[in-house]
């Protein structure tokens, strides 16, 4: 078991994508330092992409261990 991947997957529910990528999501708003619907939607998309990356890394880790 890869402890980094275990921790990264548990951080999804602790709003880690918001902490890591919150400023990136705010770039989709027309006004600076404003959090609206575009920011919320961007955060949801970023969070899903984050989880897909973590899942892909876990899948690749297991495939590498089998070979």
Care to describe what's here?
Helix content is 75%, strand content 0%. The chain is an all-alpha fold and 67 residues long. α2 packs across α3 (37-66). The longest helix is centred in the C-terminal third of the chain and has 30 residues, at 37-66. The chain is elongated, with a radius of gyration of 15 Å. The two termini are 15 Å apart. The mean pLDDT is 78.
List keywords for this structure.
mainly alpha; elongated
In short:
The protein is built from three helices and no strands. With 67 residues, the chain is an all-alpha fold. The chain is elongated, with a radius of gyration of 15 Å.
Derived from helix and strand composition plus strand pairing, the structural class reads mainly alpha
Mean pLDDT level: 78
Assess the beta-strand content as a share of residues: under 5%
Q: What does the largest sheet look like?
A: none
Number of helices: 3
**Tell me, what's the shape?**
elongated
Order of helices and strands: HHH
| Helix proportion | over 70%
Uncertain runs with pLDDT below 50, 5 residues or more?
none
Q: Could you tell me the number of beta strands? A: 0
Calculate Rg over CA atoms: 15 Å
